[in-house]
Amino acid sequence: MLEKLSDYLDGELEPGERQRLEAHVSGCDWCARFGGEMAGLVQTLRIRLGEPEPLDAEMLERIGI
Question: pTM for this structure?
């Protein structure tokens, strides 16, 4: 579950995966504590660093997206 936590915090999980992760975390004290700490860290970083600048078309082309 830990490998999915970052995607969860970024809102990038599919609904089914999100529900499975939430169900696991609600019954796992360790994951709940770790997830809470990680969520706090992510929030602090977003506040301090702001949202990243979107990549321009040239950069997207260079990296093949």
Answer: 0.66
